[in-house]
Specification:
- This protein starts with 5 loop residues before the first strand and ends in a 12-residue tail after the last helix.
- It is rod-shaped and about 180 Å long.
- Strand 7 and strand 8 form a beta hairpin.
- Helix 6 packs parallel to helix 8.
- The chain folds into three domains: about 100 residues, no CATH class; about 100 residues; about 180 residues, Actin-binding Protein, T-fimbrin, domain 1.
- It has a three-stranded mixed sheet with strand order 1-2-3. Strands 4-5-6 form a three-stranded antiparallel sheet, covered by helices on one side. A three-stranded antiparallel sheet has the order 7-8-9, with helices on one face.
- The protein has about 425 residues and is mostly helical.
- Helices cover about 55% and strands about 10% of the residues.
- Bound molecules: zinc ion (ZN).
- Zinc ion binds next to helix 3.
C-alpha cells in the first residue's frame, strides 16, 4: 500500500502515522483493500492511547487511527470497520477529519473551559431558584421598591454622567479649535521665521557688498590723499610756466616772444608765446581773485585775445606780421591792453607787498621802463617801432612776469589748497 497523506483539519499540517500503526494498518488490512477502498477512513477526534512513540514527543505531528485496532485483529473489529465503512459510503455517517495531537489538546481545553462556565451558570441559576422560593411576598415587594429606587438613582446618575459627557465633548471641541488655531499660528510663525531667515541672508549679503565697497572707497581715499599730499608739495605755477630771459629774446614755455633782424622767429611761435603769457596772467588773476577792469582776457592758444568791456570788437594777441603798416592796429592795441591788465595785477600785488619789479609799466604809452639802471624806455607797439625795441619791450615784460610768477608761487600755492581736513 502506498503512503497516504493526511492533513489536520484545523492547522493543515501533514500528519504522519506512527511506524507501528502503519505496520498494523498495512499488514492485516491488506486483505481488506478489496472490500474497502478507504481503510484509513476509520477516524475519530478522540485520541487513543499512545502507541509507544508519543506524537507529542515527535517533531512532526502524528495522528492515530481510532477504533478497536489491536495487534491481533479479530473478526469482530474487522466487521466493525466494514460496518462503519458501509455507513460512511451510504451517507448514514459523516466522516470525521483527522486532527493532530496539538489541535486535539487545544480543542479539549476549550471544551473544558466551556464546560466550567456552563456549570458555574447552572450553579447560579440553581441558587437563585432556591432563594426565590425562600423569599416571602412582602420581602419581594420591599426588594422591588428598593430596586426601583436604585434604578431611578442610577438613571439620575446616568443623566448626570450624560450631561457631564456633553460638557466634556464641548470642552474637547473648544480645545480642538484652540489647538487648530495654535497650529495655524505655529505655521504662520514658521513661515515668518523662514522669511526672516531669507531677509537675514539678503541683509548679510548686502552687508558684505557694502563692506567690500567701503574697503574699496577707503583705498581710493588713501590713494587720493597720497595724490593730494604730492600735489600740495607741487608748485603748480613753476611746473606749468617756464620763463627764460637770458639772451636777446624772452622765452616762455619754449616759445620765443619777439624777433630780431638776425633772428627771424615765426609768427606762429610768437602767437603761441603770447597765448602762454595770456594764460599765465589769466591764471594769476584767477588765483588772486582779481577782476580786470576795461578788458576781459581770453587765453586761447596762439589765437588769444582781449575783449573790451565797453564796446564791441576784440583786441588781438596774435598776428601774421602784416599789421605794422597800420597805425593803432588791433595787435598793437591788444598788446597795450595786455600791459594794462598786467599793470592792474601789479598794482593789486603791490598792495599785498613783497613784489618789486625791475621794469615799470606805462600803460598809456604802452611803454616799459628800466627802473633799476638806465631808465631806458621801450614801446610794446610795432607801428613805427624797430624790431629790436619791440623785442626788448617784450623781454622786459616777460622778466616782470617771471618775477611775478615766483612771487605768486611763494604767496599763493599754499593758499590754493582746499580744505581737505574733513576727508581725513
Ligand atoms: Zn492540527
Amino acid at each position: 500500500m502506498s503512503s497516504t497523506l493526511f492533513l489536520c483539519q484545523r492547522c493543515n499540517q501533514p500528519l504522519k502515522l506512527s511506524q507501528k500503526l502503519r505496520t498494523m494498518q498495512e499488514g492485516p488490512l491488506e486483505t481488506q483493500q478489496h472490500a474497502s477502498p478507504s481503510p484509513r477512513a476509520r477516524t475519530s477526534s478522540s485520541p487513543l492511547p499512545d502507541w509507544g512513540q508519543s506524537s507529542q514527543s515527535s517533531s512532526c505531528s502524528t495522528f492515530s487511527l481510532l477504533g478497536e485496532l489491536t495487534a491481533q485483529r479479530t473478526l469482530n473489529t474487522i466487521q466493525n470497520v466494514v460496518l462503519e465503512t458501509f455507513e460512511i459510503l451510504s451517507g448514514q455517517k459523516d466522516v470525521d477529519h483527522p486532527l493532530c495531537v496539538d489541535c486535539t489538546d487545544n480543542l479539549l481545553r476549550e471544551l473544558d473551559a466551556q464546560l466550567t462556565v456552563v456549570e458555574a451558570d447552572t450553579q447560579k441559576y440553581r441558587s437563585f431558584l432556591e432563594r426565590e422560593s425562600l423569599v416571602s411576598e412582602e420581602e419581594r415587594e420591599a426588594m422591588h421598591v428598593e430596586l426601583w429606587a436604585e434604578l431611578r438613582s442610577l438613571e439620575k446618575e446616568e443623566a448626570r454622567l450624560a450631561q457631564e459627557l456633553k460638557d466634556v465633548d464641548r470642552q474637547h471641541a473648544r480645545i480642538e479649535a484652540e489647538l487648530r488655531a495654535a497650529q495655524a499660528e505655529s505655521r504662520e510663525l514658521e513661515q515668518q521665521e523662514e522669511q526672516d531667515l531669507k531677509d537675514y541672508a539678503l541683509l548679510t549679503m548686502e552687508e558684505l557688498e557694502l563692506t567690500d565697497e567701503l574697503s574699496s572707497v577707503e583705498k581710493r581715499l588713501a590713494h587720493a590723499q597720497k595724490q593730494l599730499r604730492r600735489l600740495r608739495e607741487t608748485d603748480i605755477f613753476n611746473i606749468t610756466f617756464t620763463i627764460l630771459d637770458e639772451g636777446p629774446l624772452g622765452i616762455i614755455n619754449n616759445f620765443r616772444l619777439g624777433r630780431l633782424p638776425g633772428v627771424q622767429v615765426g609768427w606762429n611761435e610768437i602767437n603761441a608765446a603770447w597765448g602762454q603769457a595770456a594764460l599765465l596772467l589769466f591764471s594769476l588773476s584767477k588765483t588772486a581773485g582779481l577782476q580786470f577792469q576795461r578788458y576781459q582776457l581770453v587765453p586761447c592758444g596762439n589765437h588769444s585775445y582781449l575783449k573790451p568791456l565797453a564796446g564791441d570788437g576784440v583786441l588781438l594777441l596774435f598776428s601774421d606780421g602784416s599789421h605794422r603798416i597800420f597805425h593803432n592796429n588791433k595787435f598793437d592795441r591788444g598788446m597795450k591792453a595786455f600791459l594794462d591788465c598786467l599793470q592792474q595785477f601789479v598794482e593789486e600785488a603791490e598792495k599785498k607787498e613783497g613784489l618789486f619789479l625791475p621794469y615799470r609799466i606805462h600803460v598809456k604809452g604802452g611803454m616799459l621802463e628800466d627802473a633799476r639802471d638806465s631808465g631806458e624806455c621801450c614801446s610794446i607797439t610795432t607801428h613805427l617801432n624797430s624790431e629790436e625795441e619791440w623785442t626788448k619791450a617784450l623781454k622786459f615784460m616777460l622778466t616782470n612776469l617771471k618775477l611775478i610768477l615766483a612771487w605768486a608761487s611763494s604767496r599763493y600755492c599754499f593758499k590754493m589748497e582746499p580744505d581737505w581736513s574733513h576727508f581725513e
